[in-house]
């Protein structure tokens, strides 16, 4: 019954305490896949500036997700 209540998103992300970590991990993986696709599809000789802008834009969410995953767990 709980599987029906979670739905497809709940199956992919989980429930409870691990959900936030799963979302952060999914964000990191998705950003790296997009970066890899951009790297393969971009002509670096003519489009390096656009690639660099997209790379720096996509590394922002990766840094935030890594900070969430490995940051301090207890308040100071």
Question: How would you describe what is shown here?
Answer:
- The structure is a single chain.
- The protein contains 3 helices and no strands.
- With 76 residues, the protein is mostly helical.
- It is elongated.
- The protein has one domain.
CA-CA gap between termini: 40 Å
The low-confidence runs, each spanning 5 or more residues with pLDDT under 50, are: none
- Number of alpha- plus pi-helical segments: 3
- H and E order: HHH
Number of strands: 0
Biggest sheet record: none
Rg computed from alpha carbons, rounded to a whole number of angstroms: 17 Å
The domain tally reads: 1
Helix content: over 70%
Which whole number gives the mean pLDDT?
A: 84
| Shape label | elongated
Based on secondary structure, the structural category is: mainly alpha
Q: Beta-strand level of the residues, as a percent range?
A: under 5%
Topology readout:
Layout: H1 2-13, H2 19-41, H3 44-70
Helix pairs in contact: 2-3
Structure, briefly:
This protein is mostly helical. The protein has helices at residues 2-13, 19-41, 44-70.
Task: Please tag this protein with its features.
3 helices, mainly alpha, 76 residues, elongated, single chain
């Amino acid at each position: 019954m709980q599987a029906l209540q979670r739905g497809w998103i709940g199956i992919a992300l989980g429930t409870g305490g691990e959900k936030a970590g799963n979302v952060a991990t999914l964000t990191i993986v998705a950003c790296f896949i997009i970066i890899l696709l951009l790297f393969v599809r971009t002509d670096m000789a003519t489009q390096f500036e656009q690639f660099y802008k997209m790379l720096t834009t996509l590394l922002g969410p990766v840094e935030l997700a890594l900070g969430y995953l490995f940051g301090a767990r207890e308040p100071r």
